[in-house]
Amino acid sequence: MTKRNLMKWYRHGNWWRRLWFNRKYKDVLFRRLFREKRDLLSLYNALNGSTYEDPDDLEVVTMEDVIFMKMKNDLSFIIGSQLNLYEHQSTWNPNMPLRGLLYFAQQFEGLVNVRGEDIYGSGRIGLPTPEYIVFYNGSGMDTDSQMLYLSDAYSAGHGKGCLECRCRVININRGHNPELMERCHRLWEYAELSAEVEENIRQGMRREEAVHTAIDTCIERGILTDILLAEKGMVQHMLLTEYDEKKHLKHTFEEGRQEGREEGIEKGLREGLARGREEKLREQVQKKRAKGISIAQIAEELEEEIFVIEQMVER
After folding, report:
1. What is the side-by-side strand order in the sheet with 58-60?
2. What's the pLDDT at 290?
3. Beta strand pairing status for 5-12 and 15-22?
4. pLDDT tens across 47-66, in order?
5. pLDDT digits (tens, 9 = 90+) for 263-300
6. Rounded to an integer, what distance in angstroms lies between the CA atom of residue 134 and that of residue 76?
7. DSSP 58-125
8. In this structure, are residues 176 and 142 in contact, taking their beta carbons and an 8 Å threshold?
9. Contact 170/148 with Cβ under 8 angstroms?
10. pLDDT score of 18
């Protein structure tokens, strides 16, 4: 055991896996609601139309190696022969397929290393089938679901290249995917709490008031009472942290755009001044050379290095 992590070996089918559980891994509300196997299994069944009943059929495999990608909203688990990555997002990010690719690459590399497989051997190495789902409750998505493709980022365009990663984005805003919400009551409850917060903000409440009021409303409606009654303060902190991060991301984006504009203007001025100075220097050199003045003397009169004047004369 290290100071930060607990290492665990376990057998899944014919695989020996080494998994790392990070003790400092910060839960957000979505992960908190589905960290129990029975709730996560219910979500999986609702998405796939499956009928698994034993929570122990599901093995959670969130790994330390993906934390550098700040995927703190993720739930990763194996069930059957499928490796699933579920992630919650409240801000749109077109790079989701790339994140998924990096995540699964880390998982597969660890799996091959733990099993001692030889990727140059003559036998095919069996791998679990990867599935990447993002539950989205931000703005700007009108459809119930959308498929994002890694190849859309390629210079050659969609469907090109030898590598693909698909990310299925599921809209969990209020009014979307009613059949899924009916099959997974926990997901519906989460969507309702999020919708209440957003509605309160639209009505002009401050974020703190909006979150507090939404929690009270959900308790009155019998939504997420098992969590909200027992851990109300923690849930409120999670939601406020999430909204602070959304605000920070937006602010950072706007700052980046402004800095980019300012840097572009400054760079343009520098380049313009440099071009103007070079033009003036070239004219002076041409005039002095036309009078038969030597390069060394021109350099001295113009207070420039000799090699600069030599290069300009050659050009």
Report:
1. 58-60, 74-79, 82-89, 129-136, 166-171, 145-149
2. 81
3. antiparallel
4. 999 999 999 999 887 654 43
5. 655 555 556 656 667 777 888 888 888 888 887 788 77
6. 12
7. EEE---GGGGGGT-TTEEEEEETTEEEEEEEESS--TTHHHHHHHHHHHHHHHHHHHHT--TTSSSPP
8. no
9. no
10. 43
Phi–psi pair at 216, nearest 5 degrees: -65, -40
Q: Which residues pair with 151 in a beta bridge?
A: none
User: Which DSSP letter does residue 20 get?
Assistant: E
Q: Cβ neighbours of residue 167 under 8 Å, at least 6 residues apart?
A: 96, 97, 100, 132, 133, 134, 147, 148, 149
What value does the CA radius of gyration of the chain take, rounded to a whole number of Å? 29
What's the sign of the alpha-carbon dihedral 129, 130, 136, 142? negative
Q: Give the span between the Cα atoms of 149 and 151, in whole angstroms.
A: 5
- pTM of structure: 0.68
Q: How many helices (H) and strands (E) does the chain have?
A: 10, 8
- Residue 41, token pair as written in the block: 């299994």
What is the spatial distance between Cα 72 and Cα 193, in angstroms, rounded to a whole number?
A: 20
Cα distance between residue 312 and residue 282, in whole Å: 7
Report the range of poorest mean pLDDT among 19-28, 81-90, 111-120, 192-201. 19-28
Check residues 148 and 24 and name the one with the higher pLDDT.
Answer: 148
Residue 137 has pLDDT above 60, yes or no: yes
Q: Which two tokens stand for residue 162?
A: 């030898």
User: Quick one: which of 168, 176, 209 has its CA closest to 192?
Assistant: 176
